[in-house]
Amino acid sequence: VDAGRVAARSDGAEREIALGELLARNLGVAIGDRVIVVSADSFGSQSADRFTVVGTFHIGDDEFDGYGALVDLQVLQAFLEAEDSVSHVAVFLPESAAMASVGAGLDELFPDPSHEVLPWPELMPDLVQFMLLDDVGNWIGNSVLIVVVGFGLLNTILMSVFERVREFGVLRALGLRPRAVFALVLIESLQLTVLGIALGLALGIPLVLWLSGHPIHLTSDGA
After folding, report:
1. Distance CA 176, CA 169 (A)
2. Integer angstrom CA distances of residue 28 from 10, 22, 65, 83, 183
């Protein structure tokens, strides 16, 4: 919670709610103000009631900060005419590799047909498709970049060979075989490649390590 406190059980008093910081700013409300919440209850009818804003929270994601609200579970169940019922529960795991074992354990704990345990790829297949599409785009972009870098390196080597035609002619006149001249150019190309890779790693690895500890915040605090 960024300010105030978390919404608690009403106990017969006016219902409480905590709003996302961006949502509260867009609505022009502050702690202590009242908002009217309108929703469809479990029977499909319209349900509306007055809630008192007791706090605001800031997560850093506009989807949550601009549209999210926190209400006590029992208060929400009473508001939606859904006593002792929960539509869904989200379980967050530290590692995605444990998703299969945790899902199997939840299936054993809740064998009733009215309960369904779904991993997030099955729950949000559209997101999986977007992730795959993003991976394909990254592979295509990296492939194009490698081709461009390869042509740049080839152009550098080609210009180096053209500028040293007389030098190679002297080497041939001294008895150096064509395969030896080719090996000389190949070794120089490999040295240039290794030097470029080493320089790239020397500059890239510290930068990546620093960015992993100081990530760039892409979320917006604007309304």
Report:
1. 9
2. 24, 10, 14, 32, 74
Neighbouring residues of 57: CB distance < 8 A, sequence distance ≥ 6: 1, 2, 18, 19, 20, 21, 65, 68, 70
Q: Give the span between the Cα atoms of 210 and 128, in whole angstroms.
A: 29
- Give dist(CA 43, CA 80) in Å, integer: 8
| 96 alpha-carbon distance from chain centroid | 14
Question: Where does the chain show beta strands of DSSP type E?
Answer: 3-4, 15-20, 34-40, 46-57, 69-70
Summarize pLDDT for 118-165 with one digit per residue, the tens.
888 888 888 889 999 999 999 999 999 999 988 888 888 888 888 888
CA distance 52 to 34: 4
Whole-model pTM? 0.51
Non-local (6+) Cβ contacts of 45 within 8 A are: 81
Tokens, residue 188: 């120089």
Distance CA 20, CA 26 (A): 10
Amino acid (one-letter) located at 201: L
Residue pointed to by tokens 């297949």: 125
pLDDT tens string 170-212: 888 888 888 988 898 889 888 888 998 899 999 999 999 998 8
Signed CA dihedral, 186, 188, 194, 199: sign only? negative
Angle (CA) 143 149 155, round 5°? 140
